[in-house]
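[Meeting: bench + compute handoff]

Bench side (C.D.) handed over the final construct sequence. Compute side (W.E.) agreed to return the predicted structure before the next meeting so the bench team could plan truncations. Sequence as handed over:
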Amino acid sequence: MSETVKVVCYKSKTLSDGKHPLMVRVCKDGKKKYQSLGISILPSQWNFKKNEPNDNCPNRDEIRLLIQQRLFELQKTILSKKIEGKEFTASTLLENDKTRTDLHNNVGECFRYYINLLKEEERLRYAGMYEVSYNSFIKYAGTLDISFSDIDSSWLKKYEIWMLRQKLAVNTIGTRIRHLRVIFNLAIEKGIIKSDCYPFHNYKVSKMSAKTAKRALTKDDIMRVIAYKGKTNMEILAVDLFSFSYFSAGINFIDMAYLTRDNIKEDKLEYSRAKTKKKIIIPLQKEAVEIITKYGDTSPVYIFPIFTSFHKTDVQKANRLHKVLAKVNTALKRIGEELCLPQKLTTYVARHSFATVLKRAGVSTSIISESLGHSSEKITQIYLDSFENSQIEEALSHLK
C-alpha cells in the first residue's frame, strides 16, 4: 500500500493562544502517525484545502519553505528505503527521525520552535515568559528572522541600553537576555551553529542582575494585614490567602489554588510543589485551620474558591490562575496603601515575610533561608524537607 506524507494544521489540539500545531502526518497501511513541526498557527491563517499558510499568515514564506524541506526530506527517506528494500511503518519512519528539529540558522525560527515546544509540554507559564522576551526582541530589532551570527556582544549591549532607557528593571533585562541565551544553547545542541558563534563568551549575563529589594514586612505589619477586614469579597479572599501563606511556611499562590481536602493529613498539610515537584509536609497552624474551615463549603474539590467547574483543562486553569492572581494582588496593593505599609503588598510578600520573621527570631538558617530568590527558594524547600516536623513546628511558633 502506498504511503502519503503531508503537513496539516492539527485542530485536535488547541494551545493557550488559540493556535494549532502544524504536524507532519504520515499515512501507511491504514495507520497514521503525527510529528510536530515545531510551529503553531491560527486556523484563520491556514488554507485547509491546500494544506499551506494563507497570505495573511506572518512568516508565510518561511513556513512554506520549512514545510517543503521537511516533506522533501521524508520523501527522500522513503525512496531510499524502497530502493534498499527495507520495510518501514508510519511510526518507524518518524521515530528514526524523531531527534530532528529541521531548524535553520534563524534566531526567530528557533525561538518560536522552543516556545511551541514548551506549550506542547504544557509548560504554559514558561512559554508565556519566553513569548514576552521574544516580543521584546522583535520590538527592539524589528525582526528576529536573522542569522545567529548577527547577534554579537555589541548587539546585546545595545539591546541592554535600549531596555535601560525604558526604565525597566535590571533583573527584567537579565531575564530577557537569559532567554536568548537558552535559544543559542539550543541551536548549538542541535548542530545549527558552532560554539564560536556564541556571543555570551564576551557578554556576561551574570552582571545583568540586581539584588532584589527586600519584600519582607515586620511582624507587626503582618499582623495588621491579617487583622484587616476586607470591604469586598476579593479583599477578604486576598487577606485569607496572604494569611494562609504566612502561617503555612510561605506556600505560594499556585500551590494554594490546587490544594484539596486530600492534602490535609490529620494535623499536617501535605502537598507537592508545582514548581519543583518536591513533597512538602508542615504542621497546620490554628490560624490556617480556621481559614480552611471558613471555606469548607465553597468548592466540592478545592479548598479555596479559585477554580470553578468550568476550569477543566490545564490551559483553562493556567488562564484562571493568571487572572485571579492579578485581582488578588491588586486587592492586596490597595490594602497595603490603606495601611500605609512601606512597600507594595503582594502574595509573595507573605512568603518572604515568613522566612524573614523566623530569621529575625533567631531560627537557624539551616531550617529557613532569609533570601527567597529562585535559587534560594529551592534551598529553602530542601531545608524544610530535611528536618523533623518537631523542629519545623518549633520554628513556626515564632510567627505570632
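W.E. noted at the follow-up: The radius of gyration is 26 Å. C.D. will use this when planning the next construct.
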